[in-house]
Write a structure and sequence with these properties.
- Keywords: ATP synthesis, CF(1), Ion transport, Membrane, Transport.
- The model has no long low-confidence stretch (mean pLDDT about 90).
- A hairpin with a 4-residue loop joins strand 1 and strand 2 (about 15-30).
- The chain has one helix and nine strands, in the order E-E-E-E-E-E-E-E-E-H.
- It is α+β, with helices and mostly antiparallel strands.
């Protein structure tokens, strides 16, 4: 069996964040924990949680990316990672801080805002319906 390295593309909603060829291994964070991919792994799809995505190439060595939630798809030698936001760096502590401050906190605020908006809409609809019944 011949060794066939993977190609990795990290996609943001508005552009391609990074593209790497000859990737030897990938480690990503999923809702069930860390998830490792080697070139001969079966094709798969998994959800990603905010965290550190690590990949290794012969030319660059280990590369670390802080990624927001998204999806990882492996089809043959092609691996696509589609996430909302991403940033790269070599300092893992800084990347972990980015994940917490920029991804997790912002996601929590967005979820709270969506809950408040849903309650306001439900309240508006209840009052609107009660106005129709009063007439």
């Amino acid at each position: 069996m011949s060794f066939m390295p993977m190609n990795l593309a990290v996609l943001l909603p508005f552009r391609i964040f990074s593209h790497a060829t000859r990737v030897l291994r990938i480690v990503a964070e999923t809702p069930d924990g860390s998830f490792g991919l080697l070139p001969h792994r079966l094709d798969c799809v998994t959800a990603l949680t905010p965290g550190i995505l690590t990949y290794e190439t012969e030319a660059e060595g280990e590369v670390y990316l802080a990624v927001d939630e998204g999806v990882l798809v492996k089809a043959g030698a092609e691996v696509l990672v589609s996430v909302r936001r991403a940033t790269c760096g070599s300092d893992l502590d800084q990347l972990r801080a980015t994940v917490v401050q920029e991804f997790l906190i912002v996601n929590a605020r967005k979820n709270n805002l969506e809950r408040v908006m849903a309650r306001m809409e439900a309240g508006f609809m209840r009052r609107f319906v009660s106005l129709q019944h009063d007439q």
